[in-house]
Amino acid sequence: MTFGKPAGPELQPATFAFTEENLSRANEIIAYYPPGNQQSAVMPLLWLAQKQHDNWLPRAAMDYVADMLSIPRIRAYEVASFYSMYNPAPVGKFHLQVCTTTPCWLCNSDSVVKAVTDTAGVGPGHSSDDGMFTVTEVECLGACVNGPVVQVNDDYYEDLDYDSTVALINDLKAGKNVLKGSQKRRIGSMAATGPTSLKDLQPKAPAEPASNGSEGSPLEAAGGIPPEIRVAHDRAMHLASKAQGRNEEAS
Fold first, then answer.
1. Contacts of 133 (CB under 8 A, 6+ apart)
2. Is the pTM of this model over 0.85?
3. Mean pLDDT along residues 57-81
4. What architecture does CATH give domain 94-182?
5. 3-state DSSP assignment of residue 151
6. Fewer beta carbons below 10 Å: N end or C end of the chain?
């Protein structure tokens, strides 16, 4: 199935309305802006509507948001059609947004696009028949120093190459927990070769989960660390080790 054009009439709901919870949240957002400037809330309200509607934005939702903000409906259409964060048609369970702008391209984002196509079975602009994946090619995702980057739903996966992208998609297919952020476990946006300043803050290489009874964190002793918190865990253990060393020196 192709993706990018607005969903056809057969998929468009006749009406849309915020849930009670989202309506309360929408009113909170509108209150951030001075009276008479409520149109400034159009982007967060469209996003809220999209999240409520299974991650895509039907025309009825755009009309609802425009009416709520007392702006011409065409204004909501203009915003929703300009930004790639808004999906005009149903998307798969995993929306793979592949950045191919210059910094990622220089780091061989072409290999990431190929890995996505080979493994997900569809290329940019298409959704898989099983509803598992939608693939889109997007402009800069703002994580240039950690390129190539793929955004999957609301999460970033950085420092990708062909093999790590294949592994990521296979893990998503299998329902496994996956490591978010840098796939090379870089801290923030430090240089790929390691920190060039504040070198004493460089984290130790991630250790393998310790067996029961051996030294390590409680999580390691319990049998392993979920991949999505691996980097944070290693950082915390490193800082704890440094603090212990300072205490020993002081005593």
1. 92, 93, 94, 95, 96, 120, 121, 122, 127, 169
2. no
3. 96
4. 3-Layer(aba) Sandwich (3.40)
5. strand
6. C
